[in-house]
Amino acid sequence: MLWGARGGRPRPPARLGLQLAAGSVPLLVGCGSAPLSMLQPAGPGSADIAQVWWAMLIGFGLVYLGVMALVLYAAYRKRPGAPAAVRWLLVGGGLVLPTAAVLALLLWGIGRGQSLLPTAQGTPVYRVEVRAHQWWWQIRYPDAPGGALYSANELHIPAGVPVDVHVSSNDVIHSFWAPRLGGKIDAIPGRVNVVRLQADAPGDYRGVCSEFCGAQHARMGLVIHAHDADALRARLQQLAGGAHGRLRTGDARAYEQHCAACHSVDPTAESSQPAPNLADLPLRATLGAGTVDNSPAALRYWLRHHQAQKPGNRMPQQTLTDAEVEAIATYLESRP
Ligand code: CUA
Q: For all residues of the chain together, what is the average pLDDT?
C-alpha cells in the first residue's frame, strides 16, 4: 500500500522514497564508461542527442517535482474546499504550461536534429554503404581510391568529416545505430535510408542493430574505426591490396571446398551468396559480427564451433578435420 490512511489523512510513507532511491542505484551504475552510451557523445550528432536528453531529463524532472509538491500541498493543506487560485492552476498548469513546454521542446529539438540529416551542410561528405543481413553488416566503400571495396562488420571512416551512411537491408527490418557518433536509422529491404555520423577524433567506436531482427539480433555488432586522412587511405589500401584474395598465399583448397561458395576474399566483388566478405578478416577486431574478439585461436575455434557461439547463424556447421581447419585459417590469415 503506497498511501497509508491513519486518522483519516493520507500519509506518504518515507520508506517508499527510500525504496525508489535504492531501486535507481543499479540504473545509475550503468552510466559509467560505456562504448554504446549516447550520453558519451563523440561527434556533433550524438552531442545534440545527448543535449536534448539532458534538457528533457532536467526539464521534466523539475515538472515532476512541481507536480509532486502540489500533490503534497493538496494532501496536507488545512482548509477544505477549492482554493481561490484553482482556476489559474487548471488553465495555467494544465493547458498553457504543457503546450508551451512541448512546443518549445519540439522547435528546439527540430533544430538539434539537423546535424543528423544528410543535408548539403558540412560538405565534403564521406559516403559509405551498409547493408544489413541476418546477422551481420555488409560494408561497401563506393568511393575508395581505385574502385569500390567490400568488407563486413567493420567500418572505416575519416575523423572530423561528416559521413553519410546509406543503409539498406537484405532480408528483414534492422536498425543501424552508432550511439556515440549519431542517431539510429532503420534498415529496410528495398529502400535506402541515409544517416549522418561524425567522429570528432580518431578512435574506435561501436555500433549495433537496434531493431529486433531474429534469434541473433544481439550478436549483430559493428566496429567503427575513425582515422585521420592518411591512416584511412592506408587502411583502405590494405583492404584493397594487402589482404587481396588474388595475392593471397597459402593452400586455398580447403577454403575453396568449404567456404568459397558463399564467402568472397576478393574485396572488389561480392560472392553470389550473401555472406561476409573475408578479404581483410585477419585485420578485424571481432569475429561473427562482434560475437568474439578476433585472434588466431578464436578463428580456429569459430570454424569448429560457430553454431555454439552464435546459434542459428546462416553458416552451416560443417565437419572439418583438424588439418582443414588449420588450412582454412592459415589461408584467411595469409598476407603477402
Ligand atoms: Cu539486425 Cu537486430
A: 85
Distance 172 CA to ligand 1 centre (A): 8
Residues with CB under 6 A from ligand 1: 132, 135, 174, 209, 211-213, 217, 220
Ligand 1 center–CA 304 separation, angstroms: 25
What's the pLDDT score for residue 247?
58
d(CA 262, CA 264): 7
What is the position in ligand 1's atom list of the atom closest to the CA of 172?
A: 1
Q: How confident is the model at residue 32 (pLDDT cuts 50, 70, 90)?
A: low
Measured from the Cα of 211, ligand 1's closest atom is 2
| Ligand 1 mean position, distance from CA 209 (Å) | 4
Exposure of 138 in the CB half-sphere (CA atoms within 13 A):
26
What is the model's pTM? 0.81
- pLDDT at position 145: 86
Confidence of residue 8 (pLDDT cuts 50, 70, 90): very low
The pLDDT value recorded for residue 80 is 64
Atom of ligand 1 nearest to the CA of 174: 1
Check: CB of residue 167 under 8 Å from CB of residue 205. no
Question: What's the CA-to-centroid distance between 166 and ligand 1, angstroms?
Answer: 16
Q: How far is the CA of 27 from the centre of ligand 1 (A)?
A: 24
